[in-house]
Amino acid sequence: MLNRHPVAGGLFGVLALIPVAIATIRPVDTTQKPSAVGFTFESGDKITFNVAGGRLQTIEFRVSGRSYSASFIGCPAIEHLQFDSVMFDSDPSRPQMRAFDLAFHEGPEDSRQFGELPSFQVGFFKGHLRVLLITHKTGPNSYYSAPFCTAIHAPE
After folding, report:
1. From CA 149, how far away is CA 146, in angstroms rounded?
2. Which is it for strands 119-125 and 100-106: parallel, antiparallel or unpaired?
3. What is the pLDDT of residues 55-101, one digit of tens each?
4. How far apart are the first and last CA of the chain?
5. Are residues 47 and 59 in contact, defined by beta-carbon separation less than 8 angstroms?
6. Lowest mean pLDDT among 39-43, 90-94, 138-142
7. CA–CA gap between residue 41 and residue 23 (Å, rounded)
8. 56 and which of 47, 70, 78, 155 could share a cystine (Cβ 3.0–4.6 Å)?
9. Distance between CA 21 and CA 47 in Å, rounded?
10. List of long-range contacts for 70-77, beta carbons under 8 Å, 24+ apart
11. Where in the chain are the domains?
């Protein structure tokens, strides 16, 4: 059975922004975008989205003390990540399975279909990337899921 781990600190979690330049006191510059956004869950598991040029490059996972990575280089662009939609599921009662799933929504507001943005699912089983799906809502009560990218890399 998978257990949903809420994000520590409430719905939005703890965002770890890695600045590109030295911080100085001045008004917030909204033109700069972070190169990484991290989440720490109540379980202690951590996920970091690494972004370059506004596009998702990799997702780094630290689950039950082990590191995992999924590279999206060579895949279609994933932009406009909706970080407030991040959900993480794992099964801490069976750590030998090293199984966990990450889901999040992506896209600008005008890409909604039947009120919902496309969603992504990234799943690992026995420490290997096994699932990378994109799901679109196709009707009031229907969805369509398909593999997102055949160029996906999951280094050991």
Report:
1. 9
2. antiparallel
3. 788 889 888 888 988 887 777 777 787 878 888 887 766 666 788 88
4. 25
5. yes
6. 90-94
7. 27
8. 78
9. 23
10. 70/122, 70/129, 70/132, 70/152, 70/153, 70/154, 71/152, 71/153, 71/154, 71/155, 72/149, 72/152, 73/151, 73/153, 74/149, 74/151, 74/153, 75/148, 75/149, 75/151, 75/152, 76/148, 76/149
11. 3-22+33-147
Q: Alpha-carbon distance 36 to 81, whole Å?
A: 12
- The answer to whether the CB of 101 falls within 8 A of the CB of 123 is yes
What single letter denotes the amino acid at residue 113? Q
Dihedral sign (CA 56, 89, 38, 59): negative
84: its two tokens: 């407030």
Q: Bridge-partner residues for 67, per DSSP?
A: 62
Per-residue DSSP letter, 153: B
